[in-house]
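User: New here, please read:
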Amino acid sequence: MITEENKQGLFFMHSGDASQPYRYTVGTWGSKFLTELRDHKQFYGIRCPKCKKVYVPVRQVCGPCFTEMTELVPVSAEGKIVSYTILRFQFLDPETGERKPIPYGYGIFRLDGADTNFQHFIAVPEDESRLFIGARVRAVFREERRGSLRDILHFELVAD
């Protein structure tokens, strides 16, 4: 099955000779989150009015409190590695059809100002010992951004 996006932002899934167009909405807060990434390279979280937990990426309801959230707060594009893995096999990215360079990393990060974790690709440095849990990272954005999580190229280590 192959997924592709056309110029109007519609996604199509192909399986054999059949295809099915579909649209997906991320809602009001998700749209704001992605728009701010695209236009300003700025991460936003959403704060629970009851427990004050800040969620990144945003969601509508606080899990522990079951409270609706409406307060967007800026958070940093920098944070710490919570967990990561280095992959040493190449495959085609199912979203883009591009071959992933090897080695490449995938990490879970806690952005400064957030109480939840954010997942994305991480650049693997030549000296892999510099990559460790607790290391500081920052988001690297694509030059041309379109309003999706793929606007973030990857996270990289912050120079000591």
